[in-house]
Predict the 3D structure of the following.
Amino acid sequence: MNSRLLLACGIFGLSLTGIQNPMPVIAANNRSINSVITQDQFVSGNEGSIFDVSLSLSGSDVDSDEPTEIVVTSYQPVKTRQDVRDAVNDLLPQIIDTVVVDISSLWDPITGRVNLAIPIEINTRTTNALQMSATGLYPITIGLQQGKTVVSQFVTFVERLGAKLTMPNTQDDLRVALIGSLDGDVTRQSDSSTLISNNDRVSVAQTIASLEDLSTTPITLAIRPEFIEGLDRSTLEDGDLLVRLQSTQSLTILSNTYVDVNQALADQSETIFTDQLRLGEDTLRRLLPTYKATRDIWFQQTPLFGGGAQMLRNLGVRNVVMLREAAQETKGADADRPPTGLVDLQLPDGGVIDAAFVDIKLSAALTRGSQNPRGGAYLVAQQILAELKMLRSELNADDFSTSDHGVLLSTDSGALPSTAMLTALRATLQANSAITFVPLGDLLSTMTHEVKDGSRLTLDLAQDADVPSISQQLFTQTQERVDAYTSMLAPGDAQAAQWKDLLSVMPARTLSSTQRQSYVDAIWLQTFLLGEAISTPTSTTFTLGGRESSLRISLRNDNDYDVRVRVRLTSSKLAFSAAEQVVLLPAGMTTSIEVPVVAKSNGSFPVGLQLFSPSGNVAVGRSITLTARVNALAGLGQLVTGLALLLLIIWWVFHLRRASRRKLNLTRSA
């Protein structure tokens, strides 16, 4: 008996819970709301005004004997941005009224579309009209009900205007600017081939499609130069994507580094960052000749540190637009009210640089709307519009002017929203909503500085990049080697250009240590083989026949191209009139070099031979040791020899004279 009573109470409790918190249930074989196609953003404050909304339904209810109905419910108007977000997350305020519409005669089975026209009542109370007695922004739920089960439900918003008003007040438009990036993995591989992943190809195609569809909407884009250069090097299909990008309009291009430079490396060497920025600007100028990249604005998508901000300011950047991740290292920002004006970022040298923040909450909404959201992109656009309307109201309530405040929009990753999301958002904001798209540069140039405690809001940045850094020494050594071996080749040599291309992608943040090392290995191997193809003398012994003589050396170049090398000889027993000389070694030929020398002593002694790059800072090939044999007599030895010869001559003269006299005396005696 007691167990039955407990079971009954439990069932009753569950029933009450179900009544208090109705949860939509998705029936696998039944009809459901797929998306919101269009809707009115506002209704006039007149009795009997109509709220029009069109829905896309999917599925079938042939297996159900219950009628299919649309349930439309209005709730207390929202007052803040947070109220909007709560409603979107199903934390709805108090219910005001509900209207149930039988759609059996409204549903088009071919298109799946249902057009609803919901009357609005102000002072009356009926069952077929939705109560909206006061002005304000109303959360509206639209659910599909079969029998007594709600199988899908969405939250949207509609603004009820004041009495006799037919259009919302657009006197104080809130301005929004759209910024995004076009980026991908490094396309140049360590073997100098080009690889563009399918994901990156789909992403860039979607971005270009968005730019084409929204040709009159001002969009600011930070394009990764190395990535679009990869499109140019890749297949005809990828080349067509670049051609389409070149034909876009209403686009503002921001300067960007050639690759996404490792932040810690940039902090270690401003030269590396500067070279990357110049290479990036040159690449954009070459591949997008109709656009001029601006360096005034910088789109920071990764955490920004003090050293990096200082470099940006030194290079002429005036405004830094910071994404969610970039703002992680800032200290002092108000998370509850993201800045709608400019803030100052404190720099290590005591100066400041202006910064503006992408709205974090709206970034999350745009990201959600780009990923096949529940209810479709158009519904997400209505939710974003509702939040922007509340932001506009909050600015007015705080006595801020919308003429010097604004909102920056992007996704969490910094990429442009999907084409469907952008199209829905543009259509929504253009429908007399008092929210307008403006170019990013125009918005930043008119935004005022945020004020806190009577002073301009200044945020501090962390000074050290607590992220893994590639070895600056490794990069510097590889760069020196590339420069040295490049000086050995003719200007414009393709192989030298290939080494520099590999070097240019090494600072990329997205490369793993193993990937980065593969680029280093490729450069060192190719330059090593170049040096190995230069043969030094096979005979290592040379005989010098006098005190002043010449050392003859033969060098053979087995490369397919001419090279220039610096020949360096060293010896403690020989004096060289030209111990170093730069010589040209023709391809496939042996070249003889004659070096004048002066022997300091007799005998055999070592002579070092090493080839270097023309600059003399990088050794080429292996060093060898030659043996010089000096047979010449010099100094005292030559004097002694001369005296001996003189004495010998004198002896012979004396001997001959004595012999001549003796012979003469014998003749006289006879």
Observations:
- The CA atoms of residues 44 and 569 lie 95 Å apart.
- The chain has 16 helices and 31 strands.
- The domain at 174-461 is CATH 3.20.110.20 (7-stranded beta/alpha barrel).
